[in-house]
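User: Please predict the structure of the protein below. I'd like the answer in C-alpha cell form so I can feed it into my own downstream comparison script.

Assistant: Understood. Taking the following sequence of 556 residues as input:
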Amino acid sequence: MLFHTWTFAIFFAIVYPVYRLTKGTRLELPWLLAASYVFYGWWNPLYLILIAYGTIMDYWIVVRMEKSRRKKWWIALSVVSNLGLLGFFKYAGFVATNLNWLLAHLSIGDVLWIPLSVVGNLGLLGFFKHAGFVAANLNGLFAHPGIGYALPKPDILLPVGISFFTFQSMSYIIDCYRGHVKREHSFLRYAVYVSLFTQLVAGPIERASNLLRQLREEHRIARGDVSDGLSLFVVGLFKKVALADYLALYVDKVYGAPGNFEAPALALATFAFAWQIYFDFSGYTDMARGIARMMGLKLMLNFNNPYLADSLGDFWQRWHISLSTWFKDYVYIPMGGNRGGALLTYRNMVLTMVISGLWHGAAWTFLIWGVLHAAGRVLTRELERSRFYRERVPRPVKQLGVFAFVTFAWIFFRAQSAGDAWLIVSRIATSAWAFVTFAWTFAWTFFRAQSVGDAWLIVSRIATSAWAFVTFAWTFFRTLSVGDAWRIATSWADPPFPMLALGMVLAVWGYQCLYESKARTVLEWAPVRVSLAVVLVVYVATFPAGAAQKFIYFQF
C-alpha cells in the first residue's frame, strides 16, 4: 500500500476519523494496531507472522531481562533472534550464491564442503517450498466456503520494511538494557510502537524515547498539527511523483543496459540517480512525518539538505539521519568510537560504514559502496578538521567536492552488478581522461610558444574560430522552437536528458541554498509559502503520472 495511491487514500479516510474519535480512549491503541497490521498485511498477509513474532519475542525478552541478573544473556538472545531473522531473509540468497561459486572452484574430493552446501541449499529450499505449500492449502480452504481471496505465494523478495522495524525494536531493547528508557508495561503500546503504519516500511527508525513516549502521553490534535502535516505530505508527494518518478524514467533506461550508452549519458544518469534517490526517500519520510503529524505525533527529521554538506562527516549528519544515528549509537560507539587513538577510530569508522553498506542489501555493489564511503571518511577526516579546510576553502567548492564523491559512490549503489558498475566507471573515466589530455595539450601549446606574440596569435585564431561557431549556432538555434533546440543541444547524450527534470533539480538545489543562507527569512513570508504550496499542488494535480512506482528504500 503506497502513500501516493488511491488505495492508501481510502485506507486513511477510514482510519483517521475513527482514530480522532478514539483518541484518548481505551480503543485508541487497539485501533492503531489493527490499522497498522492491515497496512502491512496488504503487501503479504504471511509477513504479519514476522512482525508479530519479533514484537512478542522482544517484549518477552525485556520482561525477563528486567527480572534477571544475567541481562547480557537476554540482550544476546534478542540480537541473535532479530539479526538471525533479518539475516535469513536478507542475506541467505547472497551467502548461498557465493558459497556455490566457491564450491564450484573447489576440488570434488573436498567432501567436507558437500554437507554444508546441502544443508544451506535445502534450508533455503525448505522454507520457500513449504511456505508455498502452506499458502496453497490455505487458499484451498478459502475456496470451499467461497471466500474470494487468495494468499500470495511467498517468494525470495525481502519482506517490506523488515530492516526498519527490526532496528527500531532492537533500539528499544538496547536502550532498556542501558537504562536509557524504562520498560513499556503495555504490550499493546509496544506493538503499536513497532508496527505504526506511518513509518513502518521505510522509516524514520524511531527511538522509544521519542515515539513510545508520545504514545504514552495524552495530547490533543491541534489545527496546526493538521495544516503542518498536510504541508509535509504535499511536499513529499511532489518529491516522489513529480521529481523521483520522473528522473527514474531516464535513470532506469540507462542503468538497465549501461553497455548501450556512452559516457555522457552514463554521467547524466548517475547525476539524475543522486537526486532520484534523495527525492524518493526524503519524499517518503516527508509523507510519513506528515501523516504522523496529522495524528498528533512528531517523527524525527530524516533528511536535512544532504547535498549542501561541506564534508563527508557533515553529509552523514544530514542523510538518513535516523539510520546514521542508529549505527553511531549501537555500532560505532560500542566498538569504541573515537576513543583509543586514531588507528582504532579509523577501524571503527571503516567497520561501521561497511556494515551500513551490507544493511542496504546483500550484494557486492552495496559492500563496495560502503567501502568507498569508509575510505572517503578515513582519507578526509583530518583534512576536514584542519583550519585550512574550514576557513580558507570556499564553501561552494567543498560542497561540490562532497557532492561529486557521493554521486560517484552512487554508481555502485544503483548498478545491477559489480560488472555494470565497473563498465560505467571505466567509460566515464576514459572520457574524463581524454578531456584532461586535450586540456593539457592545449595548455602545453601556449607553454611552448617562443614569444608572447606567438601565444597571442594562437589565442586570437582559436578565439576567432570559436566565435564564428558560436555565431553560427546562435543563428541556427534562433530558428528553432525551445524543444527542438534542447533536443539538438543534448543530442550528444543519448537518450537526451529531460530539460524539465534538470530545471526542477536546479530549482530545488537553489531553494535549499537559499534556505541555508542569511536570506532564509524570505522563504518564511506567508505569501511565498502559500505561492509555493499552490505551485506544488497544481503541478502534482496536473502531472501526467503513470503507474505508481514503489519507493526505492522498500527493498532494504
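That's the full C-alpha cell string. The mean pLDDT is 79.
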